[in-house]
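Forum > Structural Biology > Help requests

Title: Can anyone predict the 3D structure of NAD kinase?

Hi all, first post here. I have the sequence for NAD kinase but no way to get a structure on my laptop. I'd be grateful if someone could post the C-alpha cells.
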Amino acid sequence: MDVGIVAQRGNNRAAYLAGDLRERLREVDVRVRLDEATAAELDAEGVPVDRMDAPDLVVSIGGDGTFLFAARGAGGTPVLGVNLGEVGFLNAVPPDEAVEAVLAEVEAFREGEMRVREAPRLAATCEGWESPHAVNEIVVQGERRGHGGGAGVEVRVDGSLYSGGHADGVLVATPTGSTAYNLSERGPLVHPGVDGLVVNEMCATGGMPPLFVAPDVTVGVTLTDAAEAVIISDGRRPHTVEVPTEVVVERTGPPVRVAGPSSDFFEALKKLE
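Reply #1:
Sure, ran it for you. C-alpha cells for NAD kinase below:
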C-alpha cells in the first residue's frame, strides 16, 4: 500500500507529525510519499503534489487550506484530514489521534473495507479554457472590487435569466464551500448532507438573493462594462479574460473522496463565532 503525506508549509508541528507518521507507516510495510515541501522539511525526497493521485490514501496535515491543496493533487484518491487549524470542516482527526486514525484506514484498505464520503467539485469554462477544479467555490468577478470596480453581470441557470445588474462578481459554491468565502458574502450555510449549489452575487446593486439550485445545473455568468474579468478557483490561480464574456460553472469529476471519521458540522460551526 502507498500513502501520501501533505503537511502545512512552514508549520513545524505539521512537519514533526508527518515525520512521526512516516516512521509508523513504514513499520507496517506501507510505502510513504511526501510532497516536495514536506520532504524538504524532513530532509527527504519528495514528489510534486499533483502526483498525489498515485497513492492509495493521502493524509493532509494542517487546516482546511492544506486539505484543499492536497485534494487538488489527489484527484480521486481518498484524503484523510488531520486538523491543526481552528475550524476543521474538512479535517476531522485531531493531531493526537492522527497515527491511530491513519493506521485504521490502512487496515481497512487492506481488508477491502475502507469507506469514503464524496464531496463535489466545480469547474469554470470560458473560451476553450477550463479552471482548476474547485472544492469550495468558483468566483467570477471584475478586475477589482469595491467602489468604482465590479462589472455588469447577468446570471443564468440552465439558460434562464435569474439576475442582472451591477456587482463585484458572482460566487458559485458547493455545500462544502458554503462555510468559506460564500459565508463571508452573506450566503447561506448548507449542511453537507444536502446536495446542490449556491449562486451568490457579491455586493450587487439591486440584485437577487443567494439562490440554492440543483447539483446538476449549469450556471452562466456574463460580465460586461469592465476592463476584464477574473476567474478564481478556491482562492487560487486567478485567470483573466477580456469582457464581454460568458463563464460557465458546473460540477465536474472526480469528486473529492474523504476518508476517516466525519467532523461534527454543528460543532465546527461554533468555532466560527
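The chain has two domains: 2-114, 121-253. The longest helix spans residues 12-27.
Shout if anything looks off.
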